[in-house]
Amino acid sequence: MQTTINPQTILKKYFGFDQFRPLQEEIIAGVVNQKDSLVLMPTGGGKSVCFQLPAIMLPHLTLVISPLIALMKDQVEALKANGIQADFLNSTMDENDQEILIQNVRNGEVKLLYLSPEKLLTLIPFIKSNIKISLIAIDEAHCISQWGHDFRPEYTKLGLLKETWPEIPIIALTATADKITRKDIVKQLSLEDPKIYVASFDRPNLSLSVRFGIKKKKKLEEIAAFIHAKKDESGIIYCLSRKSTEEMAEEMKGFGISAEFYHAGMTANERNKVQDNFINDRTKVICATIAFGMGIDKSNVRFVIHNNLPKNMEGYYQEIGRAGRDGLPSDALLYYSIGDVVMLRNFIEDSGQKELNHEKLNRMQQYAETPICRRIILLAYFGETLEHACNNCDVCKQPRKTFDGTLLAQKALSALARTNEKIGVNVLIDILRGSHRKEIIENGYNTIKTFGAGKEYSFHDWQKYILQMLNLGLIEIAYDENFNLKITSFGKELLFENKKIALVHSDDLEKFEAKKKRELNLDDTKDLEAELFDYLRGIRRGLAEKENVPAYVIFSDATLQDLSKNKPVQLSDLLKIGGMGEYKIKKYGNTFIKEIKQWLKQNDVKTPKVDTYSETFKLLQEGYGIEEISQTRQMHETTIYSHIAHLYTKNQLENLDAYINDAEYKLVKAAVKETGEKKQLTPLHTYLNEEIPFHVIRLCLAKLNKEEEEN
């Protein structure tokens, strides 16, 4: 299944990017070489490219298993907009449409086929007998694990894939999976010696903030002010209950905000309508339960607000990850109260895996109440160490006083190591404080070197310091090993390699005011770049409505910002714009160039003079063919050939070998000698019995004239 196609070329041609994101190129190489893979990459980190690009490279069909119809529809629309053959098959299609699609697949007219797990399982015998496949991609792979935050029973049957196609590589992808969930995914899918790729979970473009104990009226006013400051931007407000989504939407409408609610109690048609309005920017704010979002591939969500405390870090991370998928600055704002904690604990008591879910809620609460950088805590939960504060969260903007906590942490880590990491938080504290209670004595913990090494601190103080160590990523909780503490690689560096850390004083923690004000960005000053962005957003909206696709499928906000910043006035300039692949340049390039020129003229902004020959030359350098340049520049092919002749005459092109051959050149040269004509094409065309095209004669004359000049 080897291929000689260059992934970099495909990335530029179809996706419009010059460089891969971290790990993408390595993952793609593994997939193409038939290696099973598990990919953990944050929302907006480029997971989809890891299987979409190999699908283009590989000879046969790629099956993509996805849990939601809306998610399939979004991804297929985006692929088609990039000129990639993709489609989806689901139960909502009538039998005739399904038959047509299956025939297209059999004819090799589809490179990526999206299916739900249920649909795939019913089709396995047919696909195995009739269709060759090159790759199987399983999106949202955490759904297969009981440890995952979004377990789906239908996913558990996907182990059949490896039994059915043992020789076909499987790539499983997720944005949220802790270490236990990762192990379970590999086991459930029977992946063979998979390469596990863990990209950074850091989303530095997301600003993280938490507000505690704000009364309802004040909270609503704050949220409304925050949204008004984000003029014309899209966002999601997550609420705990169905009723509260409806109440929140009504409250927002009262503040003059375009808002709708979304929850699982609505009919499918009602939910689809709300989702469609949001995707197409007709509704700016969705007030929703966590039922909303997994199927949304909308790249220009600018904020996610949690009206209540989420029940675990995985869910919270995935939900805030729906903001800023295009990499532009976005906000994640969380409100919570003690009432939220009480309500969630009641929910947990009525659920399965109570102990695990209580612990996960503890970690969520710890994140919300932390006095240290929130991003450090968030990343540590997923096993990633951020050694420096992020400066893009509310805590970093209001830092607490710290001290050198290296020795204190080393005492705790040493005690943990001497128990072979088989204890929980309370036992560790008892060892450090020198407790003589029965469990400590029976296990011989009173004999280890660090017994009583931290007796100067109270039990309460140690709880806070160990929580900080957990949040900093020095230790982690093994949920599948009776919630015992484990020392991380970062913790080992601190213990054995003279690493230093800072901790916040326990007494300062008590003084930490959770009701701190969140600074709202109310600056609505607009410069020319912002005005052009708004103008282009309107052009994009018009195209999207005409094609009946979401606006971000045409171009992402990041691409529009790039256009607004660079203000391209010729097509070749678009090659430097992120997200501008060949297909989109041909389809939309002239429209946006024309609109940018018009806007610049209206705003009295001087534009550089366009050199039409240089424009063609740049496109030739990028590997565009004559027909492609003609279509892209909306010029006749004969005009493009005249440009090539000019470029050759001016020594910008070394030769014309790609356009004329020796036989043609000799015939034209002989005709010139016989007729004496060196400029007019028609006499030569007639003399040659109209067998040599005009553009070839033009190029031959350019070569002949240049040779005579040189001689």
Note down, in words, how this protein is organized.
Helix content is 49%, strand content 11%. By secondary structure, the protein is of the alpha/beta class. It has 5 domains: 7-198, P-loop containing nucleotide triphosphate hydrolases (Rossmann fold, 3-Layer(aba) Sandwich); 206-397, 3-Layer(aba) Sandwich (Rossmann fold); 402-511, Winged helix-like DNA-binding domain superfamily/Winged helix DNA-binding domain (Arc Repressor Mutant, subunit A, Orthogonal Bundle), CATH 1.10.10.10; 528-602, DNA polymerase, domain 1 (Orthogonal Bundle); 628-710, no CATH class. The strands form 4 sheets. A 7-stranded parallel sheet has the order 3-4-2-5-6-1-7, sandwiched between helices. Helix 12 links the parallel strand 12 (301-306) and strand 13. Helix 13 packs antiparallel against helix 14 (354-369), helix 17 (406-418) packs across helix 21 and helix 18 (425-433) packs across helix 20. The protein starts with 6 loop residues before the first helix and ends with a helix.
Characterize this entry briefly:
This protein has 711 residues and is an alpha/beta fold.
What is the chains' assembly state? single chain
Number of strands: 17
Which bin fits the share of residues in helices? 40-55%
What name goes with the CATH superfamily of the largest domain? P-loop containing nucleotide triphosphate hydrolases
CA radius of gyration: 31 Å
Shape descriptor: elongated
Please work out how many helical segments DSSP would assign. 32
Spans of at least 5 consecutive residues whose pLDDT stays below 50 are: 508-526
What amount of the residues lies in strands?
Answer: 5-15%
Tell me the distance between the termini.
Answer: 53 Å
- Which second-level CATH architecture of the largest domain applies? 3-Layer(aba) Sandwich
